[in-house]
Amino acid sequence: MGFAVAVVARGGEIVVSGLMGGNFSLPMVQWVYKRMTIEGFMVGTLTEAKELMALARAGKIKPTPMKEEPMADVQKWIDELRAGKIVGRIVLKN
Fold first, then answer.
1. What is the C-alpha separation between 4 and 41, in angstroms, rounded?
2. pTM higher than 0.90 for the full model?
3. Tell me, what's the pLDDT at 20?
4. Which of 51, 66, 48, 6 is nearest to 31 (CA)?
5. Residue 92, pLDDT score
6. Which architecture does CATH list for 1-61?
7. In degrees rounded to 5, what are phi and psi of residue 16?
8. Annotated domain spans of the chain
9. pLDDT along the chain (94 residues), means of 10
10. 8 A C-beta contact, residue 32 and residue 10
């Protein structure tokens, strides 16, 4: 959580999915200065999470499609993203 707080952009949002346990502290000044939002949610049960992890260990879950594209094509990929044509992730590289 400390890493997320350190790298979130001003006005950005940190989303915590599931239960990670433990605690974290955040100086109020940093929170207000960065104008960040911290949101948490939990979907499913512990049993479902265990079933999902068993499927992943068994290799029955396909990885997220990823491909690298040149940074020069950034506008093309933003347009594709806005049009809902991207499945997975596009990594832009210099």
1. 16
2. no
3. 61
4. 6
5. 93
6. 3-Layer(aba) Sandwich (3.40)
7. -105, 120
8. 1-61, 63-94
9. 86 77 81 86 78 88 88 94 90 91
10. no
Amino acid making up residue 83? A
Q: Are 4 and 14 in contact (CB under 8 A)?
A: yes
Tokens read off for 23: 């605690």
DSSP conformation letters of 35-88: T-EEEEE--S-HHHHHHHHHHHHTT-SPPPPEEEEEGGGHHHHHHHHHTT---S
Q: What is the pLDDT of residue 26?
A: 85
Q: What is the DSSP letter of 22?
A: S
Is residue 58 within 8 A of residue 51, CB to CB? The reply is no
Maximum Cα–Cα distance across the chain: 46
Q: Is 9 helix (H, G, I), strand (E, B) or coil?
A: coil
Spatial contact of 60 and 81, defined as CB atoms under 8 Å apart: no
Q: And the tokens for 35?
A: 């104008």
